Amino acid sequence: MKITKESTLPIHSILKTEESTYDYVDSFFVQFLDEDHKIEFADISEAFLQSKPGWISVLMRWRDRLVKPLGLKTSKKSTEEEIRNFTMEKGARLGIFHVYDVSRNEVILGENDRHLDFRISIMLEDHPNNIKNLSISSIVIFNHWFGRLYFMVIKPFHNIIVPEILKGIVAKIESENEDKHHQ
User: In angstroms, rounded to a whole number, what is the distance separating the alpha carbons of residues 76 and 61?
Assistant: First the structure.
């Protein structure tokens, strides 16, 4: 599975409207086959919530311990039931993520904090020949020097975590599709 990183947003992303105001942007893309045209955005958003590797949760707990004394927002651990019942609706919140916007093929998650504001786009696009393009894009707005310093420290982790999440989403989708074919 080939994951590509770019420093621009997908052309049709909702985040394009905020493009002139960000300090950092990246997009990670992966393409996969959807021969039966059964994969919908709801499948992607569900897989996003359920396919995070355990080591990412460990990193987030460490992050929360380190930044709490600095007055930064921390994530509340979500229960399996909360994750299972969560719907990607504008205004909803799960853990560190607030849902800012939703379209038929994209959701914008993020948070505003003292040091920086961030938005994450999860987007699914159809391409010819039964190919789907899945992207996770991020924009960051630094609110002061500490936001720049903080992001400089977490950026290497971001560059590892986002591709792993993409891989997890695709693996979950492909596994579920495989299970449907064998039933």
Answer: 9
